[in-house]
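Design review, sub-item: ligand-bound model
Attendees: FS, YL, KQ
YL presented the inputs for the D-MYO-inositol-1-phosphate complex:
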Amino acid sequence: MDDLLSRIVGIAKAAGRMMITEKTVDIGNKGTKENYVTSTDLKIQKFLRKELTAALPDSKFMGEEEDDPDVPDTYSADDLIWIVDPIDGTANYAHGIPMSVTAVGLVKGGEPILGVVYQPYLDEVYYAEKGRGAFCNGAPIRVSDHPKERGIVCTAWSCYNKVRAPLCFDVSQSLYRTCEDIRRIGTAAYELCLLSKGAADLYFEANLAPWDYTASACILKEAGGLIESQYGSIRTDRQCMIVAANNAENLEYLKSVVHGTVAKHPEAGITF
Ligand code: IPD
Ligand code: CA
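KQ shared the predicted structure:
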């Protein structure tokens, strides 16, 4: 591991541990009852902003819990931007379900070039740098070779924009008939790490923000997986519909299901 990556792994672990060590947690929401924010989210993000911008002094920072999120329409080729989710799986955290992660991604010119995801309850840290492979707790990880019939699908039903839920239910129904089974774990960043290590095989969400997937996209690509949005390649500057899979055949299958289903759900407002 090079110096920068090892420093960021240390920072992400220190940040994620706060989920366990915080004694008092204030729980609020961001507009809808499903969309939680806690005092721990805010504390972790403040810590990450300080540590990450100190690690790379010319970098910019974008986190989920900003008062005024600075989501640029376009990145210049030279911009180095940290894209951070202090707690991915905040609803799990607020309900006491021990399944949440801290996710730290670094993008250059809009492309993820480094990703670290830490699950503090399992003490699992996933990390990758572009071109250098993907790892979990020091061991290399790789996507599975499962065909879709043996595939575990991770997905969700657009909990913050329920207009898209019928689309998601229909996609789930089609996938459930063909694939082995479905999981809704509640943290997109971690689910994409499960795909990266071969524990899950296909992934679909209708509505994700860059902080949900940027770190994991770097890890997944380095583990041999594929991830796209409705724009083709993923975008790190806007909300996206995300499809991901262990191989090209399963990604094509998933895209054909999603495209066919989107055509029946104009209310979802997704165009390709
Ligand atoms: C959410 C989680 C959830 C996914 C949502 C995300 P948050 O992030 O990743 O699994 O279904 O789309 O927004 O709000 O817990 O940081
Ligand atoms: Ca998130």
